Amino acid sequence: MSVNDIHIEAQNLHRIYTIGNSSLHVLKGVSLNVKRGETLSIMGASGAGKSTLLHLLGGLDQPSQGQVLFNGRSLFDLPGRARNEIRATKMGFVFQAYHLLPELDVLENAMLPAMSRFGACHMAARNRQRAMDLLEQVGLGARARHRPMELSGGEQQRVALARALMNDPEIVLADEPTGNLDSGTGDLVLQYLFDLTKNRGHTLVVVTHNDAVARRCDRQIMLKDGSLV
Ligand SMILES: Nc1ncnc2c1ncn2[C@@H]1O[C@H](COP(=O)(O)OP(=O)(O)O)[C@@H](O)[C@H]1O
Ligand SMILES: [Mg+2]
Prior knowledge:
The protein is of the alpha/beta class and 229 residues long. Helices cover 33% and strands 28% of the residues.
């Protein structure tokens, strides 16, 4: 395997949360790498630090110590603007709680990552078309003009998935994407998640409690007490 095959790499990540006088050492030196096009599941008990790790991999939070290399470049050595640009253009995020904006309709929510980018107004028609295509791919073409609150949880998560893919990211980071859904609904969301990421060559890192999800990934890791086991 050449170095270029490594898409994202964590080197000795520590994260200590400080609250008042007490501190909580959540990650205690986590190292891992994910190859381009690979799918990786992260499992572990509630509170084990899975979300913390995923946020660090995505540059959403800063480690107390250690590095994240994305395409060989250290995310946290970059200026904030450059890190934001990487996050906006090369990464897609799916969260357990969907995080859709209630005042926007489904199409606008899906388009959001493109709208916030410089020069996006020149490409409004193209972005709109791409968002519509993605909504159709997750089975929601007919719901484009609905508000999120008019959709079921599973449908809202499919909108969130379309949004995550809007900028055609290299990597998708998903944090318990079916955690709020019943198993049948969750299975459908997962089908779309894997179809639209793994089956198209995107790298996927998914935090999950679900063995079936983990088994669908190329590789599984388990976090316990802040370390990989
Ligand atoms: N911003 C924060 N400030 C203080 N403590 C936090 C913060 N985020 C998470 N924690 C704590 O860190 C631990 C790990 O949290 P988290 O990474 O969310 O775990 P998981 O996703 O595995 O359930 C938990 O004990 C949690 O309460
Ligand atoms: Mg979590």
